[in-house]
Write a structure and sequence with these properties.
Blueprint: E1 4-9, H1 16-26, E2 35-41, H2 46-53, E3 59-62, H3 79-85, E4 89-92, H4 95-101, H5 105-117, E5 121-126, H6 130-134, H7 138-149, H8 155-160, E6 162-165, H9 179-197, H10 199-204, E7 206-210, H11 218-222, E8 229-232, H12 240-245
Helix pairs in contact: 1-2, 7-9
């Protein structure tokens, strides 16, 4: 049985003091032994967030990182910097990074490899646009994203990865893929991993659904065979996130 992993993607929200206050509010609500809970927070909030989760089982993740160790890359954050703080996870290749900051499948792959090199678990995002879904190329597009993201990744590393399927048309729109749609794609992702690495890795890897996940939609989504939790946007900034974490209660 794969343990569920539910991660909050805070995006560009909350100052360090606001992050501390929110975590103090959420901490007692996010205590479910069946779930790994991660708060992926803005880089400037990471020290405050780590201090706030101390004594709990909540992990802190970053929303992005660069694929070089150091150098003349103004404004970027290296994996060593995240490591030094104690960051356990990093979101890589979110559709907003691809859309607004020119992230490509190739840079996603470089970041994935660098995260593994530093012992940070990547949450690797993939997902199609509404046009691609209507054109019937959803799985072709997502299989391409997955195959490029995992180039050079060893089977042992792949087992530890987290994949987040986020249909772009459902992010922040209030539209949620039906549980059948989400399960079909997550099952297709697992089949792709099986082709690349075999059954053992495919059975071990955790695949999240993301895209307007709410307290009401979580139980049905997370009951699907191939959905191992969620990457939660807006709802991760509210007390309702506790209800998502406790979807099975």
């Amino acid at each position: 049985m794969r343990k569920k992993i539910i991660a909050g993607n805070w995006k560009m929200n909350k100052t360090p003091s606001e992050a501390k206050a929110l975590i103090e509010e959420l901490k007692p609500l996010c205590n479910n032994k069946d779930v790994d809970v991660v708060f992926c927070v803005p880089a400037i909030d990471i020290p405050a967030a780590l201090a706030a989760v101390k004594g709990s089982k909540i992990a802190i993740g970053a929303e992005n990182m660069y694929f070089e160790e150091s150098g003349a890359f103004t404004g970027e954050i290296s994996p060593a910097m995240l490591n030094d703080l104690g960051v356990k996870y990093v979101i890589i290749g979110h559709s907003e990074r691809r859309q607004y900051f020119a992230e490509t499948d190739e840079t996603v792959n470089k970041k994935v490899l660098k995260a593994f090199e530093h012992g940070i678990t990547p949450i690797i995002c993939c997902g199609e646009s509404l046009t691609q879904r209507e054109q019937g190329v959803t799985m072709d597009f997502i299989r391409m994203q997955i195959k490029i993201a995992f180039l050079g990744v060893t089977p042992e590393q792949a087992k530890k990865a987290v994949i987040a399927y986020e249909p772009i048309w459902a992010i922040g729109t209030g539209k949620v893929a039906t549980s059948e749609q989400a399960e079909e794609v997550c099952g297709g992702i697992r089949a792709c991993i099986k082709e690349l690495y075999g059954t053992a890795v495919a059975n071990a890897i955790r695949i999240q659904y993301g895209g307007s996940v709410s307290a009401s939609s979580a139980p049905e989504l997370f009951a699907q065979k191939n959905i191992d939790g969620g990457l939660v946007g807006g709802a991760s900034l509210k007390p309702d996130f506790g209800k998502i974490v406790n979807y099975n209660k």
